[in-house]
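Structure tokens please, single chain.
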Amino acid sequence: MASIFTRIVNGELPCYKVAETNEYLAFLDIRPLTYGHTLVIPKKEEDYIFDLNDELFVGLQLFAKMVAKALKHVTQQRIGVCVIGLEVPHAHIHLIPFTQMEQMNFANPKLNLSGEELAQLAQNIQAAIKEIA
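Here you go.
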């Protein structure tokens, strides 16, 4: 059975997309820890990030770096990176804007942003990617 992320890649489920290539996708977390919390995934479904082949792994990191730079530009905060790999069986990287270490704690309550807020944020990040590139 396809992971929820594969279903997003296949267009079966919607997302607030911020960046995409043939191999990778970045979209906003709909239950974010902080404003701008973004998920970066390879389109190829692989459960464990360290099982990715070297080319896909390095490409994912470089794609995440590009997204993180735009996210920093939009949020004016440092971007934390977290890979846990338990919640969805599809390799992914969390990019989390933060000003305090406590904000990186996944036990914290999640933000409740409206669809309009998420859509505007995604547009702002997309614009920043174009500006920075």
